[in-house]
Specification:
With 139 residues, this protein is of the alpha+beta class. It has helices at 16-21, 26-43, 96-102, 122-138, and strands at 47-50, 54-57, 60-63, 69-72, 75-79, 84-88, 106-107, 111-114. The protein contains 4 helices and 8 strands, in the order H-H-E-E-E-E-E-E-H-E-E-H.
Length: 139
Amino acid sequence: MAKNAELKTKKTAANVDDFLNSIKDEQVRAECMEIAKMMKQATKAEAKMWGSSIVGFGDFHYEYASGREGDWFLLGFSPRKQNLTLYIMGGLEQHAALLKKLGKHTTGVGCLYIKTLADVDKKTLKAIMADAVKDLKQK
């Protein structure tokens, strides 16, 4: 029997454009629009709001060895106060070579944190997104 812990962050019916247009900082808003285009291109999926502040693309069903499973997005991002948080499902370990070429960033388990798109190589960022989607779709 699968253990399905209830996720706090869920897909909502909120309007993605309304959310993005509500970002007060003009540069952050423009960068989020650009990241949204990259993620849409990588996933070939429309953006959906997850919770109140995450924009997610595509659908991914995961199942851990523990039996816990759930549904999430393939790629997503959120404009946080400290930085732009990009959610790269499947982890970042397999992208180590590309991450070395990315530019100024930090990482968490499945998160890539950047201050601004100017700090990173966009071609490399697109490659990381494309690889992550390809890896997840093969699972």
